[in-house]
Amino acid sequence: MHHLSPGADCLMGVYLFFVGVFDVKFRGEYNKNAKLWMDSLECRIIGFLAMLSSEVSVMLLTYLTMEKFLVIVFPFSHLRPSKCQTFTVLTSIWLLGISIAAVPLLNEEMFGNYYGHNGVCFPLHSERLEKPIAKGYSTGIFLG
Questions:
Q1: How far apart are the first and last CA of the chain?
Q2: In this structure, how many other beta carbons lie within 10 angstroms of the beta carbon of residue 117?
């Protein structure tokens, strides 16, 4: 279990690295290139990575907390998951994380440029100009 969490955290590192690379690329000229950057495929890809990293990290921490809680509260029971069950849960967490991050990319008509509404390509939707579905999706994902 513990060796899979750094994978999600590493994705955040990749995201931050590329935000830094593009910051250096557009240094001093960001205002001229902002729209081009936010509409780019690169922005969408790193936004996807950031969302995937965030969601998988939260789900992994939730699972780990729940597993440890059960072991502490019921120390003499057999509530410990088997290796197969743990593998299944971890695989499900990653697949759910990929799905959550990919949904906005797969339906641009409903979500618009979901990852390209700010310079860091992270879907924090709070403007009134956002599509209602994109705003609701962000709110549901990050608060849910």
A1: 23
A2: 22
Token pair 């910051």 is found at 23
The two tokens of residue 38 are 């936010």
Q: State the angle between helix axes of 5-25 and 41-73 in degrees (0 to 180), rounded to the nearest 10.
A: 150
CB 89 within 8 A of CB 63: yes
Backbone angles phi, psi at 5, to 5 degrees: -65, -40
pLDDT value at residue 47: 92
The whole-angstrom separation of Cα 40 and Cα 43 is: 5
Rounded Cα gap, residues 33 and 37, in angstroms: 6
18 within 8 A of 46, measured Cβ to Cβ: yes
- 8-state DSSP, 81: P
Q: What is the pLDDT of residues 106-140, one digit of tens each?
A: 988 888 888 888 888 888 766 656 677 887 888 88
pTM of the model: 0.83
Do the beta carbons of residue 101 and residue 122 sit within 8 Å? no
Residue ranges, the chain, pLDDT below 50: 1
